[in-house]
Write a structure and sequence with these properties.
The complex is a heterodimer of chains A (about 350) and B (about 290).
Chain A (H helix, E strand, L loop, with lengths): L9 H13 L5 E3 L4 H14 L2 E4 L15 E3 L9 H10 L5 E7 L2 H16 L3 E8 L7 H10 L3 E5 L3 H12 L6 E4 L7 H6 L7 E4 L9 H7 L2 E2 L4 H16 L7 H20 L4 H9 L3 E3 L2 E3 L14 E6 L2 E6 L15 H5 L6
Parallel strand pairs in A: 1-2, 2-3, 4-5, 4-6, 6-7, 9-10
Antiparallel strand pairs in A: 8-12, 10-11, 12-13
Chain B lengths: L2 H29 L6 H19 L3 H27 L4 H23 L12 E4 L2 E4 H23 L1 H11 L1 H6 L4 H23 L12 H15 L4 H25 L4 H19 L8
Antiparallel strand pairs in B: 1-2
Helix pairs in contact in B: 1-5, 1-8, 1-9, 1-10, 2-3, 2-4, 2-8, 2-9, 3-8, 5-6, 5-8, 6-8, 9-10, 10-11
Classes of the chains: A alpha/beta (about 350), B mainly alpha (about 290).
Chain lengths: ~350, ~290
């Protein structure tokens, strides 16, 4: 396993990818983090016919280029808010108005477009649909517009820093809604550390959570093959590696699990094909259906996407994040409607 | 009046934009050097605020004083190590050296503090004003900017050193002839300029609670150049007022364009801010406030 630091710079990611393929002669690639970077290195993997598992990048556009050797192992960006909207409509069928704010970047645009389309399909009215800069200093104008539209649900297709900024400014301007959902930001443990009770009741879609249970038993029940470590083994392994690297035993987040799923998918393909040849591995994966601790895997031959994987929704309750949707894998019940910003400021938690 | 909260929020952020631009404008006015490493000093100020608050519990007003002193020290160093050494080699060489210095500072910050986004919260309450909830911490940032701009302007107009600076701006050779220590003026102007820039970095953190990052400076170099050119490079109050205008234009422009319902309002507001800049340069090439 070779690691290279792209420093989140596209040019560097591209040259490192090229050198991994041509100099280090790697057989497989895991994509760099972030849709812009993953999209940027995809043509290189394609050019050399090296199978790349896309992990930590979810823009639909990566998979719309017709690349044969670029494979997605989890849901794409346009699907991120689908379980959130499903959950809201099933919990409260009278909900009407949705406001969507989104960051001006490849991934976030896709999240927002997917959310808008799905909300409209569900018969909801999208009252605000606004883009904001990739590195915003101030979201007050956008937040004021949301306030004037008084939506039931606020969706922010955010990344990390801007997501926190959005929550702070929603709290500042006291823009109360029945539910606030964000992408990426609420999945990071630092979210609560930075926002404290402001983070309470906020929901977000996740590819995987330690609370989600995919087990060999469930695989047997569904009649699919189980592959790789169990959830407990993965968490234990991750913690020990994290301790070696950073000195702290941190829990894995969905990004780590997602990357592990990329490795497992490639491994599965190699084992089935009995070779490291990309075409044969890809063929083996296309004919397979299996389950890992991350969820089910079924590669769609036209899109090269894992179509069996479904996302879950988490909610911050009492300083911890819990899976609240779908109901069959939920650890806690969704708290709905959310507390108001005044209640949160008074120290109330979402229980 | 729905537009009032947009106007107020634009004024508040615009005031800090103005503060961040003061140092750039001062250094250009005196030394005729475009400090392209500007954003990196904004970043250093932001980290001073972050570490001051999280390690020692120092609130931003205290961190601001610390950043001002640290920035002034760094400014003096930049003057001796880069500007003075390359003065004879020409402006282009200084420009390239400062560009390299900016990259070096950002990379050094990444190595020392890591690439992660960091932030802190200094909460001192809020007031409701014209339909906008104004965080007092942000109001403090805006007020600090105003006081710094006015203070600097008064300093340049009323003190001996200030008059010496203005004399050097008007005619460096003439100033030298009448006994002004031009090199000292250059040194102190660079120190003051970069000190004010790092102070601006501290005040900026009151607006971007989690946006502190080694590479955060680039956008502020760009914004500051636009504002400085709008206000007239070298004009202190021009830079501050142009900062206010830029903030208001962004915020009110957003409101107006979102009413029109075409294109994305924040993109249109930014686009028109640059159109405005071009028009100013076309009809008043010295900027709005420079004679």
């Amino acid at each position: 396993m070779l690691y290279r630091d792209s420093e989140s710079k596209l040019e560097l990611a591209q040259s490192l990818t090229e050198s991994l393929i041509t100099r280090d002669k790697v057989h497989f690639l895991l994509s760099p983090y972030g849709s812009d970077l993953a999209l940027g290195v995809s043509p290189i993997a394609e050019k050399y016919g090296v199978l790349m598992a896309v992990v930590g990048a979810a823009s639909d556009r990566i998979f719309q280029q017709g690349f044969r050797y670029v494979m997605g192992v989890a849901a794409v960006a346009s699907q991120y808010m689908v379980p959130v909207l499903d959950m809201v409509v099933k919990t409260n069928p009278t909900v009407k108005k949705v406001a969507i704010l989104y960051r001006d970047s490849e991934f976030n645009i896709m999240v927002a477009e997917g959310a808008k389309k799905y909300a409209e399909k569900l018969g909801l009215q999208v009252v605000v649909y606004e883009k904001y800069p990739a590195s915003p200093q101030d979201l007050t104008p956008q937040i004021l517009k949301v306030k004037q539209a008084s939506p039931d649900i606020i969706i922010v297709a955010s990344h990390f820093a801007d997501g926190q900024l959005a929550v702070r400014q929603l709290a500042e301007q006291k823009v109360d809604a029945k539910l606030v959902a964000l992408s990426v930001a609420p999945l990071v443990p630092d979210f609560y550390k930075a926002l404290q009770t402001k983070a309470e009741c906020i929901v977000g879609p996740s590819h995987w959570e330690p609370g989600v249970n995919y087990t060999p038993e469930l695989a047997r029940q569904r009649g699919v093959e189980w592959f790789g470590p169990t959830k407990e083994e993965f968490i234990q392994y991750f913690k020990s590696v994290a301790k070696q690297m950073g000195g702290q035993e941190v829990d894995p987040g969905y990004h780590a699990a997602w990357a592990a799923e990329g490795v497992l998918a490639i491994l599965y393909g190699v084992q089935k094909a009995g070779t490291v040849e990309a075409d044969k591995v890809l063929e083996a994966l296309r004919n397979a259906r299996f389950m890992t601790f991350f969820g089910e895997f079924k590669l769609d031959p036209t899109t090269n996407l894992n179509v069996a994987h479904s996302m879950v929704v988490i909610q911050w309750q009492g300083g911890n994040r819990y899976v609240v949707w779908p109901a069959e894998v939920a650890e806690r019940k969704l708290v709905y409607p959310s507390l108001t910003w005044d209640q949160k400021a008074a120290g109330q938690t979402c229980r | 009046m729905e537009v009032i909260p947009y106007f107020l929020s634009g004024l508040i952020i615009g005031s800090v934009y103005g503060l961040i631009t003061l140092g750039l404008s001062l250094i250009f006015g005196v030394l005729r050097v475009a400090n392209v490493a500007h954003g990196s000093f904004v970043m250093i100020g932001a980290y001073v605020a972050f570490f001051g608050f999280t390690l020692w519990g120092a609130p931003p007003p205290v961190a601001g004083i610390g950043a001002l002193a640290l920035g002034a020290g760094l400014g003096a160093l930049v003057y001796y190590v880069v500007v003075k050494l390359l003065m004879k080699a020409g402006e282009l060489n200084i420009l390239v050296a400062l560009f390299a210095l900016g990259l070096l500072i950002a990379e050094a910050a990444r190595m020392a503090w890591g690439p992660d986004f960091r932030g802190y919260t200094w909460s001192i309450g809020s007031v409701s004003l014209g339909g906008l909830v104004v965080e007092l911490s942000k109001a403090f940032g805006a007020l600090t900017a105003l006081v710094t701009a006015v203070g600097l302007e008064v300093f340049l107009r009323r003190t001996y050193f200030g008059r010496a600076v203005r004399a050097v701006v008007q005619d460096p050779v003439g100033a030298q002839v009448v006994g002004i220590d031009v090199e000292r003026v250059f040194l102190l102007s660079t120190a003051m300029g970069i000190g004010i820039t790092t102070l601006g970095g501290v005040m900026l953190t009151l607006f971007i609670p989690v946006g502190i990052n080694p590479y955060m400076g680039g956008i502020y170099t760009l914004i500051s150049f636009v504002i400085a050119v709008m206000g007239g490079l070298g004009s202190i109050m021009g830079a501050y007022i142009a900062g206010l205008l830029f903030g208001v234009f962004q915020s009110v422009g957003y409101y107006v364009f979102s009413l029109m319902g075409f294109a994305q309002p924040f993109e249109m507001a930014l686009f028109l801010a640059f159109v405005l800049l071009l028009l100013i340069l076309l009809f008043k090439p010295t900027g709005l406030f420079r004679l």
